[in-house]
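User: My collaborator and I are trying to settle a disagreement about how two of our proteins should look. Neither of us wants to argue from intuition anymore, so we agreed to look at predicted structures for both before our next call. Could you fold the first one, then the second, and keep them clearly separated?

Assistant: That sounds like a sensible way to settle it. I'll keep them separate. The first protein:
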Amino acid sequence: MSPAPADELCRKPLDGGWGWMVVVGAHISIGFAYSTPKALSIFYKEIQENLGASSSEIAWISSIMLAAMYAGGPVSSMLVTRFGSRPIVIAGGLMCGVSMVTASFGNSMVYLYLCIGVIGGCGLSLNLNASLTIISKYFLVKRPLANGLAMAGSPVFLCLLAPVNQYLLQIYGWRGSLLILGGLMLNCCVAGALMRPVIAPCKTSNCEPQKKLKEQPNDSHTKLKEGCMKNAKSFLDLTFFKDRGFVIYLIGSIMFIFGAYAPIVFLSAYAIRQGVEEFSAAYLLTIMGFVDMFVRPATGLIASSKWVRPRIQFFFSFAMVFTGTVHLLCPLFESYTFLVTYAVFFGVGFGMVFALIFECLMDLMGNERFPSAVGLVTIIECFPMLLGPPTAGLLVDIFGDYKYLFFMCGSVILSGGLFLFVMNIYNYHMLEKEKPGMDREKKQINVESQAHLTASEVEMKRNPEAEMERSEPEAKEANGVQREPQPENAETPD
């Protein structure tokens, strides 16, 4: 599928310049958004022992946090459209910092669910959606690369936070570690400051509507209100479900999200159960993040190539199939060497998927519809995000073995990848089949428009005097000439 068209007139993406600084800011905010729920798993064993929680109960922390991050998508998108990305990311950073600081004083699981899960997840939602939206405004041709670099923030921060959290845990305990982590997350406010709004130079002809808008402040204010109401309604636009490509993408991404995070949440605990030392178990997440760090921008470069860009949906399917297969093979090996190998391949698959997951949606919907589409997608994906890790934790509680969660997650993700591959073949076949009919409809509309225009010209030629009488008052109004006052009972000409 070809890249989505650029926005019209003055809104054409810049593909560079300050956009690279925006990518840096998005790298930081997205890094915290995706790495924090994973890196918190370092604290879970101590929290579980301290508060007497089960495996499924402790998994709800990351689940609620990720679900809140995804569920807040429509609200975040609406706020970004109204206020811009910069203030929203700054507000999200403040919420994340406050959530971690308050969670450090918790004495119950419900309190941690509220502070870390709900408040922290909402803050991460503001960071994530605002960062993705502003990248789509700054880039078009280089957008896969920009998305890959921004999404690489997740593995970079995971690679750093995993050993740092383990070090803080041993010195300060889980409460002190959360307090320090809250301070670190305030750096999202710095990232938000880099997200300068797009100001593109305009041609004179393109800027005429803006000049008219300034000359009529009352009308512009009314139109602005109407536009905001229209945008607010569009963030839960159910007409997206009429788009076959969108529905296929949504089903596949739901299946991936359900099984994506449980292996990360329980990887350290699984390694410790296999007899691996705690620091070495924590380094498995670091290894995964280190590999993921390089895979995401590399995937962005590959996806930007002229051979892969038109087939990016199939590339996404391959990434999901690869990741699901890696999870299915994990329980077959128990030594630390094979766990390191698993972490490497997991990083490759996870990096490919998350470098493409939003780029594929942009490719399907285009820049204009993307904020609405991503809001709808994230609020739907919050349900599998919420249920995935606790379901995996429940399997651990029932069978007393971690291998069943890897089998479950791997089979679900593999099925989703195969579904996307087959259904995208069907979708492209149907698009080719429907293309002649769509071309005929467009041709018929053009013919009807041309016929209407020709009839109007003929009518003008037949009645030139009436046309002059009609156009003369309009010309006088445009030049600021006032009409002579008419009596109240006089008829107003049409």
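The second protein, kept apart from the first:
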Amino acid sequence: MKCLLAGTLACTLVLTVQGFYSSSDDVVELNPSNFNREVLQSDSLWLVEFYAPWCGHCQRLTPDWKKAATALKGIVKVGAVDADQHKTLGGQYGIRGFPTIKIFGANKNKPEDYQGGRTSQAIVDGAMNALRSLVKERLSGRTGGSDQSRQSGGSSGGGSKKDVVELTDDNFDQMVLNSEDVWMVEFFAPWCGHCKNLEPEWAAAATEVKEQTKGKVRLGAVDATVHQGLASRYGIRGFPTIKIFQKGEEPEDYDGGRTRSDIVARALDLFSANAPPPELLEILNEDILKKICEDYQLCVISVLPHILDTGAAGRNAYLEVVMKMAEKYKKKMWGWLWTEAGAQMELESSLGIGGFGYPAMAAINARKMKFALLKGSFSETGIHEFLRDLSMGRGSTASVGGGALPKIHTVEPWDGKDGELPVEDDIDLSDVELDDLGKDEL
């Protein structure tokens, strides 16, 4: 009999704590599926209680919350979130205790904490005060708006979002899945605090990644509360979630840091893994030098010994070393050039090479007209140390001689063969008296 009674009480307790609100109440039950539509996109003022069914304080608040909702019907919206069941939704608003009441007023993305009493009268008074503040703001012309899709407006962090691509149910397949480019896509919710913190970092990273990869890696964003089909397709359960899409491969989760530098670093890793090896071009004319040095952050120039000094095998060995380094540093998006010693003397002079010490290497920043010289050996190890220091902002630099890119002579491209000594004209010795050779004149 005691067991039966205990079971009955337990059932009654479960029914009580799980049945806080019903369809007959004026309290709107909110969850991740309807929160954006009901609250964030609404022009109404909302009071939202975040509760847990096992919470004794929540149970005691329930009748007053219902009574306040009825009194405010048609004036202020009153809702409730089971934050124990919908932990993600509660987490986005930093809910750490129960019950927590928040006021969603002029700026739905920045709700205020309700600090009043827990009686129905205190709740109604708090709601009316918030309502008066909302009306006053509207009269003064200031309104926060619902900001349904953050990517369509300005950034609260002050950064431009022009390079973050807004993705939707309609354009996602065409722009992302059918693209040859690599995509990093953020799935966000407008009400999500972590998403708001990420927003300026994501926008800044998008611009830097676009520039450094020439648009080969792109950053996009999906409002998962609006485009729920996409969110469901990729199993999005928390915000923000970032996924990486590469053509022909399954999407992978991004689990790196959330700062601009973290995002850029991962994007450049993706770019370098998919990018073709950079070209190593011979400096044949002025256009080649200007294009490479002006289009890239740095142009790395190798001055190789004359072909007569190395032969084809020796030159190819040097070129192979440079190509390995170009491949190693390809995510830096630098330009790579080479020339033969003596072919471009003005260039050598402007870089302080001066006709000796071949092979030599210099890296030019054409925007600043600064250059750095390789001081170590022309080997994989020596060049790697030189380029590593450059990439980390270390090493000494000097100004390019003349303050501008030097004059470049038009030359024929190397044919890949060994060099040949120049052929001199034959000398006719038929008129020379050989008997007179060696006689001293008195």
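Some points you might bring to the call about the second protein. Confidence is low (pLDDT under 50) at residues 1-17, 144-149, 151-159. The longest helix spans residues 307-328.
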